[in-house]
Fold this protein.
Amino acid sequence: MEPSAGGAAALAPAAALFHSLSDPARLAVLQHLTNGEHRVRDLTDHIGLAQSTVSAHLACLKECGLVDSRPQGRASMFFLTTAPELLAVLAAAERLLDATGHAVELCPTYGLGQTGARTLITTNDDTLEESTR
């Protein structure tokens, strides 16, 4: 991202993009969609969240242009709109976390130990459980 004369206003779209990626459940949805198209029901089974929660996250991701859907019978099949770019961003995030020693986890504002911070915990059967700390 190049600096521009617009300052913070010019960075607002990037901030909105990162905000759309800031929820662990949305990241889990995106991660599952990297394997191909899924129905809401498939995602609820894989992620372990309520159908209404998954649908709300898909709506957010769709409004942000990260996912789209196509009808298949009575269901909708959801898919990534820009898989290569999204995978590159997620890989860069992993590299950044590694480079910083995951210091953001201890951040007093955004860290994992914050009151009310939502985290998703992977269980033995690869489902995710929502937890509030």
In short: The longest strand covers residues 67-72. The radius of gyration is 16 Å. The first helix runs from residue 8 to 20. The chain has a mean pLDDT of 85.
